[in-house]
Structure formats: structure tokens, C-alpha cells
């Protein structure tokens, strides 16, 4: 953990757990919206956005050859032999 000395914090009376900075709200559009040049009325939201994310995850897993396994745990055990030899703590199984 990096600790930085803040001279302003020393002169102000703020609680020790106070964090300086601003809170940014997430954008209403994603990278896919920008890449496909969607207008603000066409941004994917709600269920459509979830379906798009799930579709992208499925495509990535298919390209990574995970569709040849019964479940993801079997695939992780096959590809990650170093951590799965006799241990079940890494994936919480």
C-alpha cells in the first residue's frame, strides 16, 4: 500500500478515513457502443446490455476451446494443472 503525505489533510479537520477526490459516475455507453458508432438512442441498456455481455463471454469461451468440456470447472482443471493438483481452494470448489 502506498502512503502519500498530504499537507492539506494536516491543516483540515477531516476523519482519518476521508478520501480526497471526486466520485465519477459510470458512462451510459460502453466500448461496444463507441466501436459500432451507436447514437445515444441506440445504446444497449438493461436486458439488451446483459445479453450482449453474455454473448461476448460465450464467444470468448468458445474460441478458447471451453465448449469441449462438461463445465467450466473441468476446463479450469484441465488447463490450470499447477494449481489444481490436490487443491480445491483456488476456484472455491
TrEMBL record:
InterPro entries: EFHC1/EFHC2/EFHB (IPR040193). Keywords: Cytoplasm, Cytoskeleton, Repeat. GO terms for cellular component: cytoskeleton. It is found in: Cytoplasm, Cytoskeleton. Its main location: cytoplasm. This is Uncharacterized protein. It comes from Dreissena polymorpha.
Amino acid at each position: 500500500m502506498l502512503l502519500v503525505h498530504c499537507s492539506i489533510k494536516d491543516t483540515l479537520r477531516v476523519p482519518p478515513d476521508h478520501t480526497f477526490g471526486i466520485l465519477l459516475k459510470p458512462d451510459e455507453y460502453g466500448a461496444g457502443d463507441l466501436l459500432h458508432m451507436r447514437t445515444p438512442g441506440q445504446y444497449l441498456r438493461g436486458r439488451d446490455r446483459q445479453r450482449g455481455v453474455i454473448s461476448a463471454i460465450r464467444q470468448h469461451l468458445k474460441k478458447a476451446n471451453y465448449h469441449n468440456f462438461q463445465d467450466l470447472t473441468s476446463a479450469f482443471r484441465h488447463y490450470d494443472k499447477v494449481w489444481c493438483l490436490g487443491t480445491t481452494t483456488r476456484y472455491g470448489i
